[in-house]
Design a protein that fits this description.
Helix content is about 15%, strand content about 35%. It is α+β, with helices and mostly antiparallel strands. The strands form two sheets. Strands 1, 2, 5, 6 and 7 form a five-stranded antiparallel beta sheet that branches. Strands 3-4 form a two-stranded antiparallel ribbon. The longest helix is centred in the N-terminal third of the chain and has 13 residues, at about 20-30.
C-alpha cells in the first residue's frame, strides 16, 4: 500500500493525539476549576429602594421611577431626564434562633457525643440593623447618562452566647459588603 493510504487506514484513537481517558480527564478538570458562588450564611439584600420593594422586586430590571433602578439595570437611567438622587434605608430584623444543637466527635468507631455540650438553644442571635443605599444619575445629553450607586447588597451579624454548643465554629460574626459602582448608558 502507498504511504498515504496507511495513514488513512489507522484507527481514530491512534491519529487523534489524545486518548479518550485524557479527553475525559481534561473535560472533568475544566469543569472542576470553574468558579462557583459562595453560598454562605449571609443575607442578600435585594430591597435597595421603595420602588423595588413596592413591586416585590418585580420591577428590578425595568425600574424607571427613580435613580435606584441602576442597581439592577444601568440602562434604565436612559429614561430619566435631568438629575436624580435616590436615598433609601432598609430595616433588617433577621430573627435567628438556635434549637436542639449538639456536638459530636468523629472517631474511627463513628460519631460520639462531645462531653462539652454547652447551651443548645438561643432565642436571639442577630440584632436588627439599618442598611442604607444611595443612587444618583445625571443626563449629559439626550443620549448619554452617567450614574453612581453606594449600596450594601450583602450583610450578616450574629452574636451567640459564649457557652453555646457551636462556640468552636463561631461566637461573634459581623460582615457587610459596601458596593460602590459607576455606570453609564447610551441610547
Amino acid at each position: 500500500m502507498p504511504k498515504h493510504s496507511q495513514a488513512l487506514s489507522q484507527p481514530a484513537s491512534q491519529s487523534s493525539g489524545l486518548s479518550l481517558s485524557a479527553s475525559i480527564s481534561a473535560a472533568l478538570l475544566t469543569y472542576l476549576m470553574q468558579a462557583e458562588n459562595a453560598w454562605a450564611a449571609g443575607f442578600a439584600i435585594r430591597n435597595q429602594s421603595a420602588a423595588s420593594s413596592g413591586t416585590s422586586l418585580a420591577s428590578d430590571g425595568v425600574n424607571t421611577y427613580d435613580a435606584s433602578g441602576i442597581f439592577a439595570n444601568p440602562a434604565t437611567m436612559s429614561e430619566l431626564k435631568g438629575q436624580h438622587v435616590s436615598v433609601s434605608a432598609s430595616y433588617l430584623m433577621a430573627g435567628i434562633k438556635v434549637k436542639d444543637a449538639s456536638l459530636t466527635n468523629t472517631t474511627s468507631a463513628g460519631p460520639v457525643p462531645n462531653p462539652n455540650q454547652g447551651k443548645n438553644e438561643i432565642d436571639k442571635a442577630s440584632d436588627p440593623i439599618v442598611i442604607p443605599s444611595l443612587f444618583g444619575t445625571h443626563q449629559l445629553n439626550e443620549d448619554i447618562h452617567v450614574g453612581w450607586a453606594i449600596t450594601a447588597p450583602w450583610a450578616t451579624n450574629v452574636s451567640y452566647d459564649k457557652e453555646w454548643t457551636g462556640r468552636y465554629h463561631a461566637v461573634d460574626t459581623e460582615l457587610a459588603v459596601t458596593e460602590i459602582g459607576v455606570s453609564g448608558s447610551y441610547r
